[in-house]
Amino acid sequence: MARIFAFLYGLIAYAIFFVTFLYAIGFVGNLVVPKSIDSGGTTISAKAVLIDVLLLGLFAFQHSVMARPGFKRWWIHFVPTQVERSTYVLLSSLCLILLYWQWHPLVRVVWDVQNPAGKAMLQVLFWLGWLIVLTATFMIDHFDLFGLRQVYLYLRGKDYASVGFATPMLYKYCRHPIMLGFLIAFWAAPHMTLGHILFTVATTGYILLAIQFEEGDLIRAHGERYQDYRGRTSMLLPMFQKSAVKPAERS
To answer: Domain tally for the chain?
Structure first.
């Protein structure tokens, strides 16, 4: 029964994540969803800005701290290892839901592209960004990344083994294509408001900082192999790999 409950828990956490992810597209793009980043309008005030910054900070804190190996080693004393990733995904989703719900739109216009070609280009980039985000997760292991593989193996009575380090497809040209996709989607806005740019600047700063922590973890986990990959592959701007750097050649 424990295995079945763990699997169902993982399924529910994944379902909540996926709905939250779809809502994020509508939220940032002001599409379909009942409340988006620019829905309604809020008088610009220190209180409104502070609430939005705190919501962004809460997500950043939870998403980054709970991803650290040291926290995971402590956390699994309270949460079974098999559902640790699903719990992380669930809490990240709940932080985003809180952000969607309590976000204070600041609708003063920063820029508004009226040129049809420019507007169309930004809309294409917006969708391309989200496509990169989603497809890049499948290039490594989508279901491991969001906890389903862990609970499925537990259900089958099999031991979990890490998917290991690999650089398939986009990862050959960019170390963090998921983050690249988010940056493209967030900045590609034909109509940019003050609230939207606050969201975008804050998340851009968080992404750049979080990458540094993540890369430190990856270096500790994979050592020289990741160091070589890092030396020849761009962090965010896609480009062809440089020749491998031999350890003796590094300064």
So the answer is: 1
How many C-alpha atoms does 106 have within 13 Å on its Cβ side? Answer: 18
CA distances for 125 relative to 28, 30, 172, angstroms? 13, 15, 21
> Which residue range is the domain that position 45 belongs to?
2-249
Helices (H) and strands (E) in the chain, counts: 10, 2
Residue 29 is given by DSSP the state H
CB 122 within 8 A of CB 192: no
Note the Cα 36 to chain centre separation in Å.
19
**pLDDT bracket for residue 223 (50, 70, 90):** confident
Residue 106 · residue 44 · CB < 8 Å: yes
Model-wide pTM > 0.85: yes
pLDDT band at 249 (very low <50, low <70, confident <90, very high): very low
DSSP 236: S
Q: Please, is 250 exposed, middle or buried when counting C-beta atoms within 10 Å of its C-beta (0-12, 13-18, 19+)?
A: exposed
